[in-house]
Amino acid sequence: MRSVTLPPDTPVARRLLSAMQVVHWRNTAVLIVLLVGAVLMLLPFFWMFATSMRPAGEAYQLPPSFLPDDIRLDSYHELFASPVPFLRMYWNSFVVAAVTTIGVIITSAMAAFAFSRTRFPGKNLLFASMLLGLMVPPALLLIPLFFGMASVGIVDSIWALILPAMTNPLAVFMMRQFMRSQPREYEESAFVDGASYWTIFWRISLPQMGPPIAALSIIVFTSSWNNFLLPLVFVRSFEAMTLPVGILSLESSFGGAALSIIMAAVTVAVLPLFVVFLIAQRFIIESIASTGVKK
User: Fold this and answer.
1) Alpha-carbon gap, residue 37 to 31, rounded angstroms
2) Whether residue 192 is found in the same domain as residue 51
């Protein structure tokens, strides 16, 4: 196939060049708007990090300065040397988020396979009832959850934070929508050959769910890491406390110097999530987009 080159002085070439310039300037305007929006979104993170590097007196000065006059690491040193066990709370947050993520992936994948690949009486009604749970505010579930956790004796432990989050209707919906978009030829062939539902799920369906599992893992891990309501109600001791609630105790421990130390604690707590989200944001977009695909 030969390429056709138009002379630059022809009317067609001038119209094409004009259209390309319009598109170019439109893209430039969009990029400028996106850049301004990105800078505005990153400003709170930069302010948080800059405040963590300030001395205690400079953090409260008026008018505030955008950049610290004297960069120090005293806030981080006092944070890790404080009577509040920050590293213990950091470990509790990681354990709760990791175990919750693994549990949600297992339960949501199995439930999604049942809703999308099997037939049983009342399937649609059960799925609709599960989705109705998304409309219930989490605060309404605190009292029955508290009595349930107290009846089995796991209040003030990390299991009181893990068990209520092991089932996630939104995760089941996302996995079901992705599984419905998968071709069924391999599964039907395996079923004809005598494979069980468990074999089909474990060896055929689950290996194809890499992108939604990766995206869902990040979403669940982040929401569990930042969960504030359940730890506030179910946990009282530092041995089981997680970061969102534990950071509040720094204010009573350090008084007037608490602002720089709290910003240091928030910086350390947010940094892993920020890095993970930058690395895996592509999986999140692909998974959310696939929930609208129907087969």
Assistant:
1) 10
2) no
Kindly state the greatest CA–CA separation across the chain: 85
Same domain, 27 and 153: no
* Six-digit token string for 23: 């598109």
Between the alpha carbon of residue 131 and those of residues 126, 145, 212, 272, the distances in Å are 9, 19, 19, 31
Last residue of a domain, one of 49, 74, 99: 74
7 assigned to some structural domain:
no
65/92 same-domain check: no
Domain boundary among 74, 100, 117: 74
User: Is 3 a member of any domain?
Assistant: no
Q: Which two tokens stand for residue 280?
A: 């895996």
251 backbone φψ class: left, alpha, beta (φ>0; ψ -120 to 50):
alpha
**CATH, residue 226:** 1.10.3720.10
Q: For helices 86-117 and 210-225, give the axis angle rounded to 10 degrees.
A: 140
pTM beyond 0.85: no
Query: How is residue 129 written in tokens?
Result: 């009832």
For residue 36, the enclosing domain spans 14-74
Q: What does each of the 295 residues of the chain score in pLDDT, given as a tens digit?
A: 444 444 555 555 555 555 555 545 567 777 888 888 888 888 888 888 888 887 767 766 666 677 777 777 778 888 888 888 888 999 999 999 999 999 999 999 888 888 888 888 888 888 888 888 888 888 888 888 888 888 888 888 899 899 888 888 888 888 888 888 777 777 777 777 777 778 878 887 887 787 788 888 888 888 899 888 888 888 888 888 898 888 887 777 766 557 778 888 888 888 878 777 777 666 666 655 554 444 4
